[in-house]
Amino acid sequence: MYQVLEPFQLNGLLLKNRIARSATYSYMHNTDGYVGGDEIGIFETLAKNQIGLILSGQLYVNPDGKISDEEPGLDDDAFLPRLRELTRAVHSHGAKTIAQINHAGARSNLHVPLSPSEIKLADGRVTMELTAEEIRRIEEDFVSAAFRAKEAGFDGVQVHAAHGYLLTEFLSPASNSRSDLYGGSLENRFRIVKEILSGIRDKCGMDFPVFVKINSNREDDAAYEAELGYFLNEFKAFGVTAVELSGYEWRAHKADERNYYLRRAAEMRRLADIPIMLVGGVRTLKDMEQVIESGIDMVSLCRPLICEPDLIPKLAAGQEKARCISCSKCFGLYTQTGKRCALHA
């Protein structure tokens, strides 16, 4: 039996295996912030098909941080009944689910997006630098969203600090040139994340699972490696349940590449001694076992499960690898064709 398919306890969270569905944006939601019915069906299908932990697509903590009109929210109690439908559907099949909470920052769909420092975007727009008061309000929004996730029956939250969104922008000196308490030194750039985690712990309790998603690399990668070690040690000190490692350039990898970020992730797991989840280039059970044997705690998949929500039973029954060809057309395809994958009929 593959280790990855065996039951696993992650800092008190009992899972039926070590496989997670990494957060992904489906475009299946309403434009009023409510989770769409089709999305609930996707979660239930994944739970039926041997996914131990399902991370939601990003839920905005504040409408100013929406990446698109279809993004669902966690900034209003009115959203809780639909979210409870989702969590009940997952739990009815023995799986667990985590709410990913996010502010898109410069990537939001505002005409003038908000960011740590003024940034000129590729489309010509210029972002507006957040004031210290606005930063504190966003921190409160993250904390309130986490509490609503708990009220909705989620098994925890994941704070999204990867992929170029607001918290990533604060962490990087390339997008954060502030001269106050939220910029400059590594400790200051990390401050917003630190204060969000502290607030969630105070509001939701120490026993409520809190995950963080963060990049394993950056354009200035040599400098970032040392910074990543600092971040992970801080996460451990805050009692973070697990850290999911991704990468800033995940779209650049070829279809035949495997376990993109394994070397860095395994090294960080040894140095920081905090549970790690790894996403990127996982297509076979052998890929998954390689990740687990390296000392990493869990494996995350995203695009392969868009293509085949029943992938894990298929692999366990002898299918060699996922059908996914890593074309990334799944991001946005649904709004154009009603299909979630280019390989779907």
From TrEMBL:
Boundaries of every NADH:flavin oxidoreductase/NADH oxidase N-terminal domain copy: 5-320
Gene3D superfamilies in UniProt: Aldolase class I (3.20.20.70)
Residues spanning the signal sequence: none
SUPFAM superfamilies named among the record's database cross-references: FMN-linked oxidoreductases
MF annotations from Gene Ontology: FMN binding; oxidoreductase activity
Keywords per UniProt: Flavoprotein, Oxidoreductase
PANTHER family: BINDING OXIDOREDUCTASE, PUTATIVE (AFU_ORTHOLOGUE AFUA_2G08260)-RELATED (PTHR43656)
Protein name, as recorded: 2,4-dienoyl-CoA reductase
Species this protein is from: Papillibacter cinnamivorans DSM 12816
